[in-house]
Amino acid sequence: MKTLSHYLNGQLSAGQSQRTSPVYNPATGEQSAQVALATADETREAVRIADEAFVAWSKTSPLKRSRILFKFKALVEEHTDELARLISSEHGKVFSDAKGEVTRGLEVVEFACGIPHLQKGEHSMNVGTGVDSYSMMQPLGVCAGISPFNFPAMVPMWMFPIALACGNTFVMKPSEKDPSTPLRLAELLKEAGLPDGVFNVINGDKEAVDVLLTDERVQAVSFVGSTPIAEYIYATASAHGKRVQALGGAKNHMVIMPDADLDQAVGALMGAAYGSAGERCMAISVAVPVGEETANRLREKLVAELDKLTVGPGLVDGPDNDMGPLITREHREKVAGYIQTGVDEGAELVVDGRQTTIDGAGDGYFIGGSLFDHVTPSMRIHSEEIFGPVLAIARVASFDEAVSMINAHEYGNGTAIFTRDGDAARQYCEQIQVGMVGVNVPIPVPMAFHSFGGWKRSLFGPLHMHGPDGVRFYTRMKTITQRWPSGIREETNHFTMPTM
Ligand code: NAD
């Protein structure tokens, strides 16, 4: 059995611990590898390596750091298909989706290539008589990243390109469910010219994570995952004096106004609810049609579209399926359990994905797309994150009712409104308590040069990921106020252009 281990000091490094975790191909249910789970000592060693590498890397000029990232970008582009195959074989998402994930990650690398400009700081002359002030944005030191299973390439790439560009060194702790892609990214970084020790990957579970949260050499922790763990990460790492951004779970609503282009809204909903088998933190899991007529028409169109949804392996010869399997057998059972909960709670199960026949599914962790109608806010299928291909229709009578229902929800990651009414759209953007809002855009993931993050229990910490917040998160500002005696060099006090 292949054992995936760590990437330390510029090379793959076999784990010392006896603990491992199985890695499966979700499309077949077969174990493809096992991943080493680092001990606390191995994790401390990763931190030591990154701490040592910080001395030279933080003094490397931004231009040189940027040039390495430019090379990394070219290498990732060259290896996109290979990376997408790796993602699909361990995560299960379809190939086109996996390629899209690599592209979204690359956009953050492109943003980070602009670091000489982004890290310039500010300057003011004559803030007092003969006094100037300027600020510098200095790197923090060793930064840690802890990522979830659902984007094994993109989420690490939300973090390390900007951290490295700013002059930090990094210890990445990927999800133990699909660890191969971050290891391959580490090799590509080395090929791009990144000095050894600047980027390290430690595979593991809570034992490794707890070292990253408490070791005094780690200055900042970026986390993406479920809300209970995000909350734990934020509380523990903050209590140990670290800067933390911890992104959590989600339950995202799409409001469909009576005047919306319904075909456009349904097309958007199908991708947003069922794409990547609903295992996206920005997936739409609740459709909120305003008015009975909108709801009835929406439901009818969704049922027709669900009939055409193709479910099957992510890697196939020929056209992609619309959606692949879920990540694990346990997760499929959890999603199936939520479908039963919805039925027991009194929601109407219009399409039951548990009954979907899937050609060639074998022992893969497949489940078809499900649709509920007449879902109300008190039901668990509305209040909890299912993280699977289950869409709920929650009918409301008015725009105001839609806004109140969404604002009362504990999560606030993403949301969308579909309408032709500019005023409704504007009111929605202003009133909704959600971090990322789409107007006729179902999955409003901000581009890399903007920042990504939710509100409420979808994000712990003040700074969002990538974009301007990413640069702020990975740098510390220092402001210098300086006065130099003036008037003592009267005769040379006028400036002349030097001759070339
Ligand atoms: P998870 O919380 O189970 O795991 C995330 C990471 O935390 C993994 O690296 C895991 O090894 C580690 N971890 C798990 N339990 C831990 C513990 N007790 N102590 C310390 N570390 C622990 O999340 P997941 O199942 O991998 O990912 C799915 C979740 O991530 C969903 O809730 C989804 O909404 C969320 N997510 C959020 C965003 C966002 O931007 N807000 C993006 C992607 C995924």
Automatic annotation (TrEMBL):
Which residue intervals make up region (Disordered)? 1-29
- A GO term, aspect molecular function: methylmalonate-semialdehyde dehydrogenase (acylating, NAD) activity
Regions that span the bilayer: none
Under the heading CDD domains, the entry gives: ALDH_F6_MMSDH (cd07085)
Superkingdom per UniProt: Bacteria
- A Pfam family annotated for this UniProt entry: Aldedh
Sorted alphabetically, the keyword list is: NAD, Oxidoreductase
* Broadest EC class assigned to this enzyme: oxidoreductase
GO terms (BP aspect): L-valine catabolic process; thymine catabolic process
Output the InterPro entries linked to this UniProt entry: Ald_DH/histidinol_DH, Ald_DH_C, Ald_DH_CS_CYS, Ald_DH_N, Aldehyde_DH_dom, MeMal-semiAld_DH
Q: What is its EC number?
A: 1.2.1.27
Positions of the Aldehyde dehydrogenase domain: 16-480
Identification of the protein by name: methylmalonate-semialdehyde dehydrogenase (CoA acylating)
Q: Which organism is it from?
A: Vreelandella titanicae BH1
Taxonomically, what lineage is the organism? Answer: Bacteria, Pseudomonadati, Pseudomonadota, Gammaproteobacteria, Oceanospirillales
